[in-house]
Design goal:
Length: about 240
Amino acid sequence: MSLTIDKLSVGYGAVDVLHDVDLEVPSGSIVALVGRNGAGKSTLMRTVAGLMKPRSGEVTLEGRRLTARRPAAVVRSGVVLVPEGRQIFAKLTVEENLRMGCFVSVRGPAAEARRAEMYELFPILGERRHHPGGSLSGGQQQMLAIARALLANPRLLLMDEPFLGLAPGVIVEVRNVIADIRERGTSVLLVEQSVQAALATADSAYLLSSGRIVASGRADQMLNDASLRKTMLGTST
Ligand SMILES: Nc1ncnc2c1ncn2[C@@H]1O[C@H](COP(=O)(O)OP(=O)(O)OP(=O)(O)O)[C@@H](O)[C@H]1O
């Protein structure tokens, strides 16, 4: 499902954070939005998810406006956010966390079938279904946050810093999960400070700096562009 962000400007009170941002997630693709701490990445994700209202500009999904919709309506239209910091319920079990994830979109036997699918997709969650969410490792918590989002059967998954705080080996596992999600027909928009991991995962990418898109293109080309590498990573090697 394709997402178009057109001249989006968003702010908090008197402070403008995003300025005229244009971004496209073509159907069936993985797009990365990279940028430093405070560039406005989470603000963009929250706006697409319907949690913030833009000052101006539009977000459309397959040509239909998302901007005026409430968060639950955005979820029902097929756009689901995996929030920064996972936001799982530490004291609830894995199963209870997944039950919470179902309730906006699916209920009853359909919800149970969806949870069973998630345990197949993430066997470690099945093994730990009666353990509190807070007892899981960082990587397992990320899997739980992703599984909870997938329960709503998204056509577009928004992932806010999916690699944050994860060990390199676990980042590879999460990257494989993201590739698998795309194989199943769900488009992915991910925002990351970890430029290398994000660009290695994505088809195309945008660089956000102080709320403005300053570069965009194919992810592999951006990663190989020496001057862009310098801007993004602070290195030319
Ligand atoms: N609730 C808020 N009220 C006021 N300003 C905010 C609020 N949330 C974020 N900001 C400001 O908006 C700017 C962009 O923040 P945002 O969280 O979108 O950046 P980010 O690129 O996601 O960074 P990070 O990786 O740290 O989350 C920052 O200057 C931040 O201080």
